[in-house]
From TrEMBL, chains A, B:
PROSITE patterns: SLC26A, STAS. This is Sulfate transporter 2.1 like. Keywords: Membrane, Transmembrane, Transmembrane helix, Transport. Residues 581-685 form the STAS domain. CDD domains: STAS_SulP_like_sulfate_transporter. It comes from Actinidia chinensis var. chinensis (Chinese soft-hair kiwi). It is a multi-pass membrane protein. It is found in: Membrane. NCBIfam families: sulP (TIGR00815). GO terms for cellular component: membrane. The chain crosses the membrane at residues 171-193, 213-233, 239-258, 294-313, 319-340, 379-400, 412-431, 438-462, 468-491, 503-532.
Length: 686, 686
């Protein structure tokens, strides 16, 4: 997602490095020649080293010592930020700096960057088109019924679903970088839209306002997506972690399934809430009223038909098209049946008139001056993030399968543009559908051309066949949606998450139950909060671990992880378990180290015969950063150790840490003994 | 603060270690004897090692290899938690397990644990008492006027201040572990109380209810503090970092100063708000009305007097008592002057009648059934935390000066008890005062006896002298409070924070301006939020750094920190800059590594002649933890590197990390090459 964010300050540090190295070569001479007690106070730590063999070894040791304490100034937070931003924003610009003098090729490559279609259409062959055509048609046959179904799920008129399968795919085909992604309406987004918008407006009461709101939300979603792409904010999508998505999808699937009971039982009144409790109440109530079974029969029979075809498709790869066109077949069949038996007279709900013709221009339908504008924008943001997360997750998995790279930021830009244009041509939020993308891949599509084929097919059907859908029973849509749900519930993955990381699983479960019992957006919120709480807990955990020398090496490692590691008697080598010694854990860590030093008996049980510890070595190699509280507690630690007659030495502090220690002149004030490695610290102090 | 939280699972891992070691000694034989392509799939990585010299070296190398991949199972989060809690709660209990059979000594040592007074009163000498007496009297002479002043700051009647200097110090003397801490009312807490309680009740309108609320808050604060102590939640105090306290104190000082204009100008009406804007408005308005100058003159003249004495005290250590008794002197003088000149007739505000006699029992004044109970409890919590933070900060700094240890949890317990008992004897929240503790220390106190002396002195003055304070001008209290403020503003420290850590300074400034322009509690809230945002930023920063071999050593370090570090051609050694590879940064890190591998030219500028990178070594030594998203992106990274014809190896993964990688069978599935050190990885892979 962050392709354009290269290594920060790469070029200027190159220059700096040269400067440093020249400086270094001078200092090295001075060091090797100068007496051991140099003006640098910390070279005092070198005293114990015997000065007889004033050879290469010692020179190097002292050089190390010197450079541990006098590294080049690390880049400050601001500079890091600025560099990062510059890298991010101007990476594309820089690319064209070189081509400035030949404007033609510059424009070409600019066009190619914005419209990847120019890249692949060059060497596009008839063979490729054949497979794309096949894939496109298969896709269309699955897409038409699904679109209608999802539109009803989004509480919009059926034609909006079809509209959404026309314009967005065409635009994505021009701008997108994925070859397999099948664009159009999807179940989760449709649910998300209806569940959030109907808090502002009742779709039954005044559908016109509702649909206008939906279009406005789509517009905002597009704006946000495009903005993410342009500002390279791809990483925002990462904040919905994989675990969260698994839980969220599962919850959403169940909620969607419950929504289908409306069509299934042919109910006229249904709740606007999406949580399982209120929905089940409604269903329970309606089941106990007399209800007509025909809808139910139609739905179940065709659902079984679709599932059987899918099973066959799985068994025999040659029949991949069968599950794909099964929905279309069932729509046609059910429509015929209803038409012939006139079952609508006996209470079978039918679609009735679907508005034919192509997408209308809907610029004037967008609300901006409404009082709910801010509310609508908020919904737009949520929808945008969720849509992107799903699309990029799907796109990337297939890209990795085929072994090419997906540019997250370009993807976002193209999705944004397609939704903006979509909202102006009466489409609601479109994104990459998981089920259809799989079909597209299975049908062996080569390029985004399959999307174009699909779009054109849908367009034709909008022109010609909509009035044929008059008698299509609503129940069939329910069965089509239901057949798409099992793919959303991934128990296996959930089990893996549980196995590997309990806290991740907690986030997953949080999302699941949040969606199930509260609402879709609350589910997401809960999950995100859990995820970040996890990060904080991990960052400030105040653990310490005793290190020992791995036998036969110069490596010091955790004595619990490597039980054969040998502790030096009288020396306590400690590594802090977190990457940040800050206000929240510094005191804790200090106390624990002091406890360790105190607990003689405990030491002995660990087979450390040395009794009293004379030296504590703090391995700071995994301490990324430290704050003023951290430094303060280090100072206090040193004071208290001194009272206890124990020395404190430090090994391998990182760039930021040593820099801050020097600024707070911890180094000079306390003569802090700082070395490159734990081994050197032992040699240096004893 | 966390003394009792020793190393988790120390004892049982000791046992485990033995088990492991025995297991290990067996496995070691099997390894050294078995062929290199063992059933352990990852030993495949060993192939390149030449099998001729099947000696010690290789045995060790393979042993390392084996143990990297097969460490003992790390303690799960639950077990860690349980251990930690057990350690925490039963540490004191365990202490008495040993003494179970001799009940007498058990009770003794229990008493000594709860009441440290028994420890120090044993070897208490007349000499010690002399110095304590002197210190106590000095303390009292400073404490009496300050108490009255702070009571007015807390919008309570003057006697409450005096009450608060009687009971709490006596209890603390019995239970507290600090020898210098001077207990009583303090400025910041008084301000905090008034600023928050007067949102519930107007102190002018019905002072009785207000003071009852104040007592209830005190009670709750005591409960919370005691609970913190008993549950060993000392670390909660750390969440107000040093930087935050600096900013908060400075802001509070200014706010308190502004509050003094009421007494300074002898205003009758004043705002209940504490933020600088509304207060300055009131002052501005009142300055433009005719106001009488006498109050102002009295205040300023005595303020200058106090400051001069303080200056003298600083100059000449022998005169330490002068600044201490200056407030008392000025109270006496000003009272005399007003009495003789009858200045109260000309608009000089005076204290009038102060209710004499000792503390009344105030059990029946506590509200529990009031509708505001929850609100009051909330205030209690905030006050409790702030009070503890100040007291422990002050206490610990002096303890470290004298070189003894302060038990944070005991401190909390004793503060809690003293405030609970205080609230039942009409005292409001007491804590350790910075200024008075310094005086106490300067006066050479030996033990907490000085607190007892002070309390008795105040008690006597309550009995005898309160009616002498009838003519004491209110302005003098303002001058006493004002004279105490400069100690709260520590510009020097603020500068140090700025110098060392910009983000810490941000938190500091946040607290400062929050207190100044919004309100005291909002200031704290802002600061805490900033602090935790800082932690998150630090934890998920997606930086990577290229490593090189430090010349003449086997140490690999950041090439920017150590410019002389040498990169091996064709090998890219990367270390991740955060301790957590999680959903929030994993993707980012992956992309950056891929960029690095991609950027050939960039490599060359860094003097890496090797051109194409054949091997990427991920130094995982500072990766504390990884989640499912992290593992997923590692897998993706490996896939993409393979496409690019580059190998991925890992060095020194931590316990949790390698455990999770195995659970997610990343190791087996991708034959991930994992080694103990970067050096071994290089040898192993090339």
């Amino acid at each position: 997602m962050a392709t354009a964010l290269g290594i920060t300050h790469s070029s200027d540090t190159a220059r700096e490095t040269e400067r440093e190295l020249s400086k270094f070569s001078q200092t090295l001479q001075t060091i090797t020649t100068m007496p051991s007690s140099a003006n640098n106070p910390c070279l005092a730590a070198e005293e114990p080293l015997d000065l007889e063999n004033n050879g290469q070894a010692e020179a190097e040791a002292r050089m190390a010592q010197y450079w541990v304490l006098n590294p080049p100034k690390p880049p400050g937070p601001w500079r890091d930020l600025v560099n990062s931003i510059r890298k991010t924003c101007f990476s594309t610009v820089n690319k064209f700096q070189s081509l400035k003098n030949q404007p033609f090729s510059a424009t070409i490559s600019l066009l190619e960057t914005i419209f990847p279609v120019f890249l692949w259409c060059r060497n596009y062959t008839v063979m490729k088109f054949k497979s794309d055509l096949l894939a496109g048609l298969t896709l269309a046959s699955l897409c038409i019924p699904q679109s209608i179904g999802y539109a009803t799920l989004a509480k919009l008129d059926p034609q909006y679903g079809l509209y959404t399968s026309v314009v967005p795919p065409l635009i994505y085909a021009l701008m997108g970088t994925s070859r397999e992604l099948a664009i159009g309406p999807v179940a989760v987004i449709s649910l998300l839209l209806s569940s959030m918008i109907q808090k502002l407006e009742d779709p039954e009461a005044n559908p016109v306002v509702y649909s206008r709101l939906a279009l406005t939300v789509t517009f905002f979603a597009g704006i946000f997506q495009a903005a993410f792409g342009l500002l390279r904010l791809g990483f925002l999508v990462d904040f919905l972690s994989h675990a969260v998505i698994v839980g969220f999808m599962a919850g959403a699937a169940i909620v969607i399934g419950l929504q289908q009971f409306k069509g299934l039982l042919g109910l006229t009144h249904f709740t606007n809430k999406t949580d399982i409790i209120s929905v089940s109440k409604v269903i329970w109530r309606s089941v106990h009223h007399p209800w007509n079974p025909f809808n139910f029969i139609i739905c179940c029979s065709f659902l079984t038909f679709i599932l059987i075809t899918r099973f066959l498709g799985k068994r025999n790869k040659k029949l991949f098209w069968l599950p794909a066109i099964a929905p279309l077949i069932s729509v046609v069949l059910s429509t015929l049946i209803v038409y012939l038996t006139r079952a609508d007279k006996n209470g079978v709900k039918i679609l009735k008139h679907i508005k034919g013709g192509l997408n209308q221009i809907s610029i004037h339908d967008l609300y901006f001056d409404s009082p709910q504008a801010s509310e609508v924008a908020k919904i737009g943001l949520i929808v945008a993030v969720v849509a992107l997360t799903e699309a990029i997750a799907v796109g990337q998995s297939f890209a990795t399968m085929k072994g090419y790279h997906l540019d997250g930021n370009k993807e976002m830009l193209s999705m944004g543009v397609m939704n903006i244009v979509g909202s102006l041509t009466s489409c609601y939020v479109a994104t990459g559908s998981f089920s259809r993308t799989a079909v597209n891949f299975g049908a062996g599509c080569e390029t985004a051309m399959s999307n174009i084929v699909m779009a054109i097919t849908v367009m034709l059907s909008l022109e010609l066949f909509t009035r044929l859908l008059y008698y299509t029973p609503v129940a069939i849509l329910a069965s089509i949606i239901l057949s798409a749900l099992p793919a959303l519930i991934d128990l296996n993955e959930a089990y893996n998450i549980w196995k590997v990381d309990k806290l991740d699983f907690l986030a997953c479960i949080g999302a699941f139950f949040g969606v199930l019992f509260a609402s879709v957006e609350i589910g997401l919120l809960v999950a995100v909060i859990i995820s970040f709480a996890k990060i904080i807990l991990n960052a400030i955990q105040p653990g310490i671990e005793a290190l020992g020398r791995f036998p036969g090496t110069d490596v010091f490692c955790d004595v619990h992880q490597y039980p054969m590691a040998i502790k030096a008697p009288g020396i306590l080598t400690i590594r802090i378990k977190s990457s940040l010694l800050c206000f929240a854990n510094a005191n804790f860590v200090k106390e624990r180290i002091l406890n360790r030093v105190g607990e003689k008996e405990d030491e002995e049980t660990k087979g450390d015969a040395g009794g009293r510890t004379k030296l504590v070595i703090l391995d700071m190699s995994n301490l990324m950063n430290i704050d003023t509280s951290g430094i303060a507690s280090l100072e206090e630690l040193q004071k208290k150790l001194m009272l206890h007659g124990t020395e404190l030495a430090m090994a391998n502090p990182r760039w930021q840490v040593v820099h801050k220690l020097r600024l707070a002149n911890f180094v000079n004030k306390n003569g802090g003994r700082i070395f490159l490695t734990v081994g050197e610290a032992m040699d240096g102090c004893l």
